[in-house]
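Researcher: We're teaching a course module on how sequence relates to structure. For the next exercise, students receive a sequence and then see the predicted structure as tokens, so they can try to spot secondary structure elements on their own. Here is the exercise chain.
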Amino acid sequence: MLFLTPLRLEVARVGLGSVGRAIAIDAGPTRRRRTPNEHLRNGLGALLHASSEIACRRTVRVSLVHVLRPAVRTELRYGVAELRRAGARSTQFGHKQRTLLAATATVSALAAVTVAVRARRTTPPDLDQPV
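Model: And here is the predicted structure for the students to work with:
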């Protein structure tokens, strides 16, 4: 049974990362012109992929170590920049898209935190310590 907890965490991490890569159109910055919807997809995909590296870890300390990695920080910056570009280019429905963008970012952040909290709660106690 102790093997299932790390397995579930790894499956959740890989699944969240796969969803992020599937949503994104580009894995990194390009010179091509993008529509606001494509910027939104790239930003959400990058944030989901970066949150998969951060949230699905056994302890908060390990999650913080992964936040400090340069590749994860670069991807987080890219995701936020893409979300800014998605909101900045919309002129016709600016307020509605910014509200939708903020709601989507909030939901994805809450999902990452929820996965981390659930993983923390379902982690079995250390059996090596005497009671």
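Model: If you want an answer key for the exercise: Residues 70 and 76 are 10 Å apart (CA to CA). The chain has a mean pLDDT of 77.
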